[in-house]
Amino acid sequence: MKHLLRSLQFKISVSLFVVGGILIGISALRLNERSKQSRRIAMKSLAFAEGSRLSGMSQHLLRRKVSRAADLELSYSSTNKDLRLGLIVDGENIVRHATMQQMRGLTLAETPLAGVGPLLELVRESMEGRVLESVPDKRLVAIFPFWEGLAQAKGSVILEYDLEMPLASASALALHALLAQSMALMGGCLALWLLLKKVVTERVETLVSQVQGMSLETEPMPAIQGRDELAQVSQAVRLTHDRLRHSEQRLHQIAATMRDVFWLAPDDSRSFAFVNDAYATVFSRRAARLVTRRWDWLHAIVREDRRRCLEMLRSLRRGGPRLEIEVRVASPEGQLRWVRCRGFAVPGSDGQECSVAGIAMDVSERKTLERRLLDTAENERRRIGMDLHDDLCQRLAAALMKTGVLQSALARSGGSSQEPLAAELANDLSEATGIARGFARGLAPVGIEALGITAALSDLGEFITRGFKIPCRVECSATDTALTGESSTHIFRVAQELATNAAKHGNPSWIEISFEMTPQEARLLVTHDGRPYRPVSAAIEGMGMHLVRQRLDALGASLSFHPPAQGDDAVNSVECLIPLSANPETATVEIA
């Protein structure tokens, strides 16, 4: 029923019926008024003619004193059913003849026409007959004077007609005409209804079904045949459907062959997100679940990385620039996979949020290679450090001993001019030995495997103090039981790079390295009072910071730079947070 009321067929038919009804109503009012006016004019003409005839006949017959003939003439007039009362009065207003015999001899004031007395006097003065309505739309009175006998007395013929019944009859005739027009209107509306159903409604329904059925999975519906507007629209829809179908097929083929996940999240929360077939491989979840659970993909991401995903989506929804993040995805079996997500905003309508699209690439192999490169580089650093310590440092130590023996021999020879040069050479060899040992300990830090990260960081503080002549204090309140050797090495190298950058680029007067651990995370903080150092983009980072990023990815850690606060004692700090519960080397992955 609602569909019928909303149809174009119903609206056009009702509109035509309403307009036709209004026109018929206006026509009926005009017809009724015209019919009543025509009937009124006809009644007045009849009254005028009858009054003129009776006044002439009365004057002739009364002069001859033929009263019966006057009664006969008056009786002829009474055959008109609309005549209520007819009187012939003399100059004294005494009824001489009447359509009702009982009124003979009465005065005019004693009859039902007593109210026409004033009008009768006016008529007698002008001796001109008059026809007028005594009661509007109800009574019509005709008064016609005549000369009575030789005495020249003024007699009158008074006729009263019923006007109400003739006018009602005229209204009835107008109503009959209105009913005929109404039936014609209803017949026209019914014919229009059937015509619209055949010509418009059924074809529009076909066109709507054709538009709603436009999809990649269904065959295009046949277009409406013809050359009218609806047929042209249907044929254009069919052509557009074919083009869209071919475009979607090409896009589907491209998306199906992609190894990366292509996704699109519409701005309408009621619409479903689109993902290609690679989603099941990368996220280890069925794409069909996104229909009922819009955020099912988020549960595949490690809990600590979800916040960054949501922040990226919120930024893109507001029309922000393209973003790229790397997150970890866990399979139902607990296997970790690194995924690089690139997202961009698709502008929507004015005042609405943007749709978001992007590509998610599995970079686990690259991460594995990077970790192997880190391990290889670390082993090579250790080998070089050990070679420096076991070979170069030993050779320098031997040369230092020989120089000491040479200095002693020169001293015993007494007053040799080469003794100061030998002493200077011994001093240089001693400094070179200390520098070489420092490099060896930096390349192969002693204590990470044997004594733990606390001893290694303390040794790093002494190296910074000795090598850069800047006081470096180390505070550790951590135990090494929750860290493996690889994690400890990565944390040490991050601290080493951050502290070295502070010493080289910040020109500080002091540096502080703080390391603490909780069951959930480890916190490394490097603080100094020099200039802040923070690369504006990854493109201009040096090799050291690039390696730091790789080590942070291996640890699943985050790095944040804190600018100095306002004040004389403002300091810069770089904070590194390592979530131990999410560290692939230290804990089992928790899947939501």
Automatic annotation (TrEMBL):
<dbReference type="InterPro" id="IPR000700">
    <property type="entry name" value="PAS-assoc_C"/>
</dbReference>
<keyword id="KW-0902">Two-component regulatory system</keyword>
<keyword id="KW-0812">Transmembrane</keyword>
<keyword id="KW-0418">Kinase</keyword>
<dbReference type="InterPro" id="IPR011712">
    <property type="entry name" value="Sig_transdc_His_kin_sub3_dim/P"/>
</dbReference>
<keyword id="KW-0472">Membrane</keyword>
<dbReference type="InterPro" id="IPR000014">
    <property type="entry name" value="PAS"/>
</dbReference>
<protein>
    <recommendedName>
        <fullName>PAC domain-containing protein</fullName>
    </recommendedName>
</protein>
<dbReference type="Pfam" id="PF07730">
    <property type="entry name" value="HisKA_3"/>
</dbReference>
<keyword id="KW-1133">Transmembrane helix</keyword>
<dbReference type="InterPro" id="IPR050482">
    <property type="entry name" value="Sensor_HK_TwoCompSys"/>
</dbReference>
<dbReference type="InterPro" id="IPR013655">
    <property type="entry name" value="PAS_fold_3"/>
</dbReference>
<dbReference type="InterPro" id="IPR036890">
    <property type="entry name" value="HATPase_C_sf"/>
</dbReference>
<feature type="domain" description="PAC">
    <location>
        <begin position="323"/>
        <end position="375"/>
    </location>
</feature>
<dbReference type="Pfam" id="PF08447">
    <property type="entry name" value="PAS_3"/>
</dbReference>
<dbReference type="InterPro" id="IPR035965">
    <property type="entry name" value="PAS-like_dom_sf"/>
</dbReference>
<keyword id="KW-0808">Transferase</keyword>
<dbReference type="InterPro" id="IPR003594">
    <property type="entry name" value="HATPase_dom"/>
</dbReference>
<feature type="transmembrane region" description="Helical">
    <location>
        <begin position="12"/>
        <end position="31"/>
    </location>
</feature>
